[in-house]
Design brief:
By secondary structure, this protein is mainly alpha-helical. Helix content is 74%, strand content 0%.
Length: 233
């Protein structure tokens, strides 16, 4: 029998569980589809078909927004963008999708909500979120660079603050961009390698450099976070 004295499961935890189940289902469906049509799978042909479709970017952006609400890692989506759209377009659509996804969680928490997100259960994040609220877009960028809070959880939490939308979106773009570039370029390099071309070297090098940069920036940002007060918005 269920324990009636057990603490309630937070709404964000339920969303995270749904996201994991959805991601697992998509992976299984992808494996089944790849096996079913394995004879027709050709990365070069598929890439050409995606590049020639005007709806492909819109479909990707829509999926990115939904995935961002369900705790699907944005880095996975950046890799998909790199494979599907290539070196430059993949980075563009991945960056735009990450900002739209971040905005979706923010606006759901602030304007839609409908009891889905209980602010009282976010008390343990009240300290960091208050600092971000005071710090404006720079603080948002910094918390995006520090991998201490899941991306989707940060979106919802910041939506419950008094932070204005424009600084939030600007800070999200700045903070998410290094890792987005890294994984999109690595995805593009992997896609080129699957096609058997020699064009994988440049995107792989850019991705590796961006990944190294994304690892160094949080170290500098963490020192800045601890040693200096947040500027007023």
């Amino acid at each position: 029998m269920p324990d009636i004295n057990a603490p309630p499961v937070p709404s964000w935890a339920r969303l995270r569980q749904v996201g994991r189940i959805a991601l697992g289902a998509l992976i299984v469906a992808g494996i089944v589809a790849a096996w079913r049509w394995r004879g027709e799978f050709n990365p070069a042909v598929l890439s050409t078909q995606i590049a020639g479709s005007r709806l492909a970017p819109l479909v990707f952006l829509a999926l990115h927004i939904v995935a961002s609400l369900l705790f699907v890692p944005r880095t996975l989506l950046a890799i998909v963008a790199g494979i599907a759209f290539g070196m430059w377009w993949g980075t563009l659509w991945a960056a735009l999708g990450s900002v739209l996804g971040a905005g979706a969680g923010f606006f759901v928490a602030r304007y839609v909500n409908g009891g889905l997100i209980d602010a009282a259960r976010w008390s343990r994040l009240s300290g960091p979120m208050a600092r971000v609220e005071r710090g404006g877009w720079r603080a948002v960028a910094m918390i995006r660079l520090l991998p201490v809070i899941p991306h989707t959880l940060t979106n919802y939490a910041l939506g419950l603050t008094r932070l204005r939308p424009l600084p939030y979106l600007l800070g999200s773009l700045a903070g998410q961009l290094p890792l987005t570039i890294a994984y999109a370029e690595l995805g593009a390099g992997g896609g080129q390698a699957l096609r058997g071309t020699h064009d994988w070297v440049l995107p792989t090098a850019i991705g590796a450099g961006a990944l190294l940069l994304s690892m160094l920036i949080p170290i500098i940002a963490r020192r800045h976070w601890r040693s200096r007060p947040m500027p007023e918005a």
